[in-house]
Amino acid sequence: MRAVNVPTFLKKLINITGMSEQWVAAQIKQKGDSKCIPWKSLKDLILTYLDVRKRVDVFALSIYGLVFILKALGHVDEAVTNLFDRLDKRVTPISTILAETFRSLSACRKAGEGRFIGCVQLLLAWFYSHF
User: Fold this and answer.
1) What φ, ψ does residue 75 adopt, rounded to 5°?
2) DUF7745 domain: from which residue to which, for each copy (predicted)?
3) How many angstroms separate the Cα of 46 from the Cα of each of 5, 17, 79, 110?
4) What is the number of other CB atoms lying within 10 angstroms of the CB of residue 2?
5) What is the per-residue pLDDT across 35-46, written as a single tens digit (0 to 9) for each?
6) Is 73 helix (H, G, I), strand (E, B) or coil?
7) Residue ranges per structural domain of the chain
8) Lowest-confidence segment of 40-44, 82-86, 105-109, 112-116 by average pLDDT
9) 77 φ/ψ sector (left φ>0, alpha ψ -120 to 50, else beta)
10) Which residue from 77, 108, 109, 68 is spatially nearest to 12, judged by alpha carbons?
């Protein structure tokens, strides 16, 4: 068998943002059990980036992170870069979004309380289209 070379969160952020390794490493924070990048850092890139394609990529990454897979308020989670990386390869994000939705609902149920973290409208649209 061949070893699979899976890019790290750092490498994926470097590819998406086009920023240096030092800049990206300085932005990465640990929130709970996952790594993430603050929305403010991405917002600053969107507002100042000269490369329009990279600006759109960072904006799209932010939207996915703040709307679809929300784990830490004001931060874009590592799972979003996995999704974003797959979108670039023309792979549908539906299974990832549903898996994150299931994970969030399961965590709420295990705790016996809490609130759903995810995109309720997207989940509702999926239910309407499948049932």
Assistant:
1) -135, 150
2) 10-130
3) 29, 10, 20, 38
4) 4
5) 889 989 999 988
6) coil
7) 9-93
8) 112-116
9) beta
10) 77
